[in-house]
């Protein structure tokens, strides 16, 4: 094998953004501008960058963007009051509270306070439950991005064995749930492996499609991958690199250089799944605005 085909999130997201622009223009023609509100509590640098990126993409798409920045000393009651205020605002269709929150706050209580109809992160238990039963209002952004990468890259999923490495509530669990549903980009036989799995490599070697989200740099090596498998690397780990001007670099959960020689297709880090998360967040916000405007899709 000469090397795997690259699946690039930038390429996939461009096609989705083109479709979203048409939908946004149609909504504006009906007097509705999709609006996204983001609440940032504290001064976590990574969260600040991510929130700025969301605001910039809203601007590029012609959507309304509202960023509410609160100090790390904000009380939970104050945060809940702001959430309630946005829940009542008809001009805001999507609301997310940037995680992680300061340690004195109860993340579950905050997530539960968001109106499920505006929960474009798909963290609210109502939306998680609807996703699991195959009747989703929204799909969680990163897993939805992975699914779109597979669909729009022509990767057949029906009847294929998908192995998901990792069981987080943000990626691993919803990813497994989505891939086992009926429909496009799904209909798969799914296995989930994690830190307590015995002989984990023997399971990953069975995967036709291997989706890795375990949070350990270069965890999956070539000996853990079947020849010709499709490998999607969701990991984003910052590791020290004194040769870099920043002193660090991003690495995925997959040992890219060795695995690309065995896989038929692979997503790199950076440039793979990363661009898809914000893209699918925008798609959820547009869908929420369509629902509010009575647009049936």
Unreliable residue stretches: none
Adjacency order of strands in the biggest sheet: 1-11-8-7-5-6
Order of H and E elements: EHEHEHEHHHEHEHEEEEHEH
* Major sheet description: 6 strands, parallel
| CATH C-level name of the largest domain | Alpha Beta
Number of strands: 11
Overall structural class, as computed from helix and strand content, comes to alpha/beta
Verbal overview:
- The protein is α/β, with parallel strands linked by helices and 297 residues long.
- It has two domains: 30-117, Leucine Dehydrogenase, chain A, domain 1 (Rossmann fold), CATH 3.40.50.10860; 140-275, NAD(P)-binding Rossmann-like Domain (Rossmann fold, 3-Layer(aba) Sandwich), CATH 3.40.50.720.
- Helices cover 38% and strands 16% of the residues.
- The strands form three sheets. Strands 1-11-8-7-5-6 form a six-stranded parallel β-sheet. A three-stranded parallel β-sheet has the order 3-2-4, sandwiched between helices. A two-stranded antiparallel ribbon has the order 9-10.
